[in-house]
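Summary for the lay section of the report: proteins are chains of building blocks that fold into shapes. Here we show the chain for DnaA regulatory inactivator Hda and then a coded description of the shape we predicted for it.
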Amino acid sequence: MSRAPAQLPLGVGLRDDATFASFLPGSNAGLVDRLTHQLDAAGEPFVYLWGASGTGRTHLLQAACHAASDRDLRALYLPLNELGHFPPLMLEEAERLDLVAIDDVDVVVGRRRWEEGLFHAFNRLRDAGRRLIMAADTSPRQLPVKLPDLASRLTWGVTFHLQGLDDAQRLQALQLRARVRGMQLPDEVARYILHRGPRGLGALCEALETLDRASLSAQRKLTIPFVKQALGW
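The coded shape description reads as follows.
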């Protein structure tokens, strides 16, 4: 039986729908392929990905952790926008895990204790032959890192710039997420949600989750009037 991904006592978990199957690659197929095979014997030890908010950074890191769990491996997802105000104690003994996915690295750069914690965790993971993924809103060379050794480490792996989706791809992505949830999302309803809803796919997926619950509760199909009622638009 597959073990659940290792989680912090702080309760950081993974979204059930944040998987590779529910991610529309668009122009990011090379990155998705690299992450999908990262846990293979010849996989990339360190992947750094960066991009604007809403391009799928968090989704991909959580998808990698789900994929590790599916292979009966131990993974840990660390969103530093939620955890960065704590000391970096959760990085201790990170090398006991098969994969560590660190999100929002930009939140803690410039802080000595965190930079040192990341540097030492990087070294321990590398020496143990483990896998590491980091994500931020800017490239590793543009991060204002104060610790030179950490700045050097961040450029060691493969770096990918996440590209956003165009409007047609965003429509496809929304309908893909709906299908993964077992929802029927007609074209006209999907276009209405994209037109009236938030721009970021993460927020759109939260809206889908709300619609899923509402439609199940009301035993209603997704129509534009029902979406207006359920989402208060």
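Put simply, here is one thing we learned. The longest helix spans residues 201-218.
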